[in-house]
Amino acid sequence: MLTDHERRILRYWQDEPSLTPGEIGEKVGLSAAQVARRMKMLRQRGVVKSIEAQINWPALGYTVEVSLRITLDKTVPRAFDEFLAAAREVPEVIEIQTFLGRVDARLNLIARNMPHYQEVYRDRILTLPHIADIEALMHVARIKAEEVYPL
Fold first, then answer.
1. pLDDT value, residue 88
2. From CA 144, how far away is CA 151, in angstroms rounded?
3. DSSP code for 105
4. pLDDT tens digits along 15-26
5. Quick one: DSSP state of residue 151?
6. Contact 66, 109 (CB under 8 A)
7. Residue 9: which residues within 8 A CB-CB, separation 6 or more?
8. How far is CA 69 from CA 72, 90, 96, in A?
9. Sign of the CA dihedral running 117, 118, 123, 125
10. What is the pTM of this model?
11. CA 149 to CA 52: how far, in whole Å?
């Protein structure tokens, strides 16, 4: 469980990861050393997995994002493992999720434009092993994309 101070540290740290322990300390009423110790402890306990940069893909020229829902041929014993291993090798796949239910996996894929997407889909996605069914969902807008703990 988190203490009140730890929750407050996480709230500010999530909102602005570049804040120093001293800056967070001013907001939560602790010294920089106390905040630094708690931040280190949160990392060690696995509460904070990493500090990452979020990439704005359109700013880099990747204007197409597609979510592919994949159903696998489960009659093949190693279908799942072989599919995931091959999907990891596609550079344009930026996220892979697995599910229980009708859909087995979801791949998030980025492309520079529609011709590039069509090339990736035809040459890299459709050649992945053990696909029984695939549904492409074209990304239109990101309404909410937060992984913030509701503190």
1. 98
2. 17
3. E
4. 889 999 999 999
5. -
6. yes
7. 24, 28, 30, 35, 38, 39, 42
8. 10, 16, 10
9. positive
10. 0.78
11. 16
